[in-house]
């Protein structure tokens, strides 16, 4: 193992849109769930806009797509049934078409060899996040994977960081966040962490660029470059 000579000792990663390209499987799982409750499919571009704030928000936004055709109370009555089916189906099909982004496996390995402590904080349901990481053979690189359901709050809530730094003895000046969404940006800012925003992920890069963040990456390989140069 190499000695860390840089200041960065910990990295918090988002999952979807940062480590993995998961939209095809989320889209398929949503459409299977819609079929289960006798509603038609929705386009994949809508899914790109709906993800990021957890599965329940995803279900609510998906059903809202049909608000011009169905009564609001009727759609609300379908939420729990659709959510439960979605969680079961997606758990079993979480990597049918999901892949790691280019450079993820190699970069995680190199960071691990630098003794960097790595974490995943995601708004994806925790059991699905862990299952996905295991099936894609990246689980063992991480000190902890914290998905939705571990805490009674989700990104961008600062309480996640407060718990994490207490449990793992982390410090703001030694930790960075890598993500591709507004919740990642807001979480990092709330927690006073530097954040690398991935322009290759799910969120429209023009939205991310409009934030005028200090650090952007176009490839996952750039995470390693940032670490060894800071």
From TrEMBL:
Signal peptide, first to last residue: none
Keywords: Hydrolase
Enzyme Commission number(s) from the entry: 3.1.3.18
Pathway: Organic acid metabolism; glycolate biosynthesis; glycolate from 2-phosphoglycolate: step 1/1
Enzyme class, UniProt record, top EC level: hydrolase
UniProt xrefs under InterPro entries: HAD-like_hydrolase_sf, HAD-like_sf, HAD-SF_hydro_IA, HAD_2, HAD_sf, PGP-like_dom2
GO biological process: DNA repair
Family membership: Belongs to the HAD-like hydrolase superfamily. CbbY/CbbZ/Gph/YieH family.
Classification via PANTHER family: PHOSPHOGLYCOLATE PHOSPHATASE
Protein name: phosphoglycolate phosphatase
């Amino acid at each position: 193992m190499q000695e860390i000579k840089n200041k960065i000792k910990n990295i918090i990663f988002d999952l979807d849109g940062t480590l993995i390209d998961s939209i095809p499987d989320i889209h398929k799982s949503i459409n299977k769930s819609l079929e289960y409750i006798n509603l038609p499919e929705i386009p994949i571009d809508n899914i790109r806009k709906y993800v990021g704030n957890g599965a329940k928000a995803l279900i609510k936004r998906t059903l809202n797509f049909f608000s011009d055709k169905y009564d609001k109370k009727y759609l609300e009555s379908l939420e729990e049934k659709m959510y439960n089916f979605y969680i079961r189906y997606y758990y079993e099909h979480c990597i049918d078409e999901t892949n790691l982004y280019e450079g993820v496996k190699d970069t995680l390995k190199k960071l691990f060899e630098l003794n960097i402590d790595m974490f995943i904080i995601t708004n994806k349901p925790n059991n699905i996040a862990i299952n996905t990481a295991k099936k894609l053979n990246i689980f063992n690189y991480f000190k902890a994977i914290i998905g939705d359901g571990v805490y009674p709050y989700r990104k961008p809530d600062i309480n996640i960081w407060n718990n994490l730094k207490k449990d793992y003895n982390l410090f703001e000046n030694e930790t960075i966040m890598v993500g591709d969404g507004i919740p990642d940006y807001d979480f990092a800012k709330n927690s006073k962490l530097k954040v690398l925003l991935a322009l290759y992920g799910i969120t429209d890069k023009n939205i991310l660029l409009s934030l005028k963040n200090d650090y952007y990456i176009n490839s996952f390989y750039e995470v390693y470059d940032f670490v060894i140069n800071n």
